[in-house]
Amino acid sequence: MDVFSSLGHGFEVALTFQNLGLAFIGCLLGTVIGALPGLGPSNGVAILIPLSFSLGLDATAALILLTSVYYGAMYGGRISSILLNIPGDEPAVMTTLDGYPMARAGKAGEALAISGIASFVGSFIATWGLVFLAPQLVKVALLFGPAEYFALYVLAFATLGGISSANQAKAAFAAALGLGIAMIGVDGQTGVPRFSFGTVHLYDGIDFLVAIVGLFALSEVLIFLEHRGEGEVHGKVAIGRPVASWAVLKHCTPAMLRSTVIGFVAGVLPGAGASLGSFMAYATEKNISNRDKTFGTGDPRGVAAPEAGNNAAAGGALVPMLALGVPGSGTTAVLLAVLLSLNITPGPLLFAQHPDVVWGLIAALFMANVMLIAMNLPLVGIFARVLLIPPRFLMPLVAMISFVGIYGINGSTFDLYEMVVFGMLGWVLRKFDVPLVPVIMGVLLGNQMEANLRRALTISNGDWGALLHSPLAIALWVLAAVGFLLPIVVGKRVKARMARAKGELAEAMDAD
Amino acid sequence: MGDRALGGVGLALAAFYIWQATRIQESFISDPVGPKGFPFIIGGLLALASLAVILRPDARPHWPSAGRLLEIAVAVAVMVAYAMLLPDLGFVFATALASAYFSWRLGASALQAALAGIAIALGIYVVFHLLLGLTLAKGFLGI
Question: Which domain, by its residues, includes A80?
Answer without folding.
Answer: 2-143+150-511
